[in-house]
Inverse folding.
């Protein structure tokens, strides 16, 4: 299963499908559309162990707000539960909610807001982990996340990726608690909340449960600090990855470094190093990535070279 709008013409999956078709293998594509009101009604009724008629109003509200997108439906229902707008009443032994309250809640929120609110309820360490992961892409390596968090103190992560006025650290947000056990705790929390999943074939590779989750996680980083934050992540990966790992992730590392190009010092050697990395990445991906991606790498290369020529 995949999201068709995320699969470009030269994406590995698209190339594999094309290869299978060219060898005569008959592939069947089944497009899965949005859920209907009837689907959502049945889903909620089964989940709450209630009759369809009893959940009809709730299902109608959810369908109206989500347009039947399965992921949005799940997020809204979880949000209602998290905010105790949908709760199990032991007095009457069934799930209860108030239609007017739910309708008012959903009328003022969209999916992005729901996800950001959900992420903001995570502890600070876990928020830092998910911010780092959001800069690495929809799929990312846990070892890369560990390398970054290991080399950034909690206070520096907060400084680079948070708003100016930050709440004080609490006991749960230990200044130096970027240990393996701490990272493991954050991973467990994120998996438990359904925010990301570990690949079954490679335990080091994770992916966000939906591209909207990655977007919401990235939105937690203030606009004014995003380029600096991504540049710092790129610098750490460039320093810590071995040659094989760097080669495998060259495009991602260079893209992160390019984000902070405007903040580079006037050190010509530093800019020459970045220019060489862009050329190397551009040569590597020119046949396997969308043309816009390749163009961006060469634009970054030319920008760096122009600076070196001028100065």
């Amino acid at each position: 299963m995949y999201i068709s709008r995320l699969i470009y013409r030269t994406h590995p999956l698209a190339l594999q499908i094309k290869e299978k078709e060219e060898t005569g293998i008959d592939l069947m594509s089944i497009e899965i559309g949005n859920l209907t009101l009837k689907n959502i009604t049945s889903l909620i009724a089964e989940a709450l162990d209630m009759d369809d008629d009893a959940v009809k109003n709730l299902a109608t509200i959810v369908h109206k707000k989500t347009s039947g997108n399965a992921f949005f439906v799940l997020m809204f229902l979880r949000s209602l539960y998290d905010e105790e707008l949908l709760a199990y009443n032991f007095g009457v032994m069934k799930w209860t909610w108030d239609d007017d309250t739910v309708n008012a809640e959903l009328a003022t929120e969209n999916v992005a807001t729901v996800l950001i609110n959900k992420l903001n309820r995570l502890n600070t360490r876990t928020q830092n982990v998910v911010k780092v992961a959001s800069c690495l892409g929809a799929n990312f390596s846990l070892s890369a996340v560990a390398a970054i968090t290991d080399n950034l103190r909690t206070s520096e992560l907060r400084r680079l990726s948070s708003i100016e006025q930050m709440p004080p650290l609490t006991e749960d947000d230990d200044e130096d608690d970027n240990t393996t056990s701490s990272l493991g705790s954050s991973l467990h929390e994120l998996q438990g909340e359904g925010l990301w999943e570990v690949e079954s074939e490679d335990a080091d590779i994770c992916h966000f449960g939906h591209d909207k989750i990655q977007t919401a996680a990235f939105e937690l980083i203030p606009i004014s600090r995003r380029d600096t934050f991504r540049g710092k992540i790129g610098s750490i990966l460039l320093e810590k990855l071995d040659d094989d790992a760097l080669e495998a992730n060259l495009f991602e590392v260079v893209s992160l470094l390019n984000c902070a190009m405007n903040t580079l010092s006037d050190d010509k050697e530093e800019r020459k190093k970045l220019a060489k990395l862009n050329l190397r990445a551009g040569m590597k991906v020119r046949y396997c990535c969308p043309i816009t991606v390749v163009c961006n790498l060469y634009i970054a290369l030319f920008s760096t070279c122009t600076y070196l020529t001028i100065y």
Summary: The beta strands are 87-89, 94-96, 139-141, 196-198, 205-208. The longest strand covers residues 205-208.
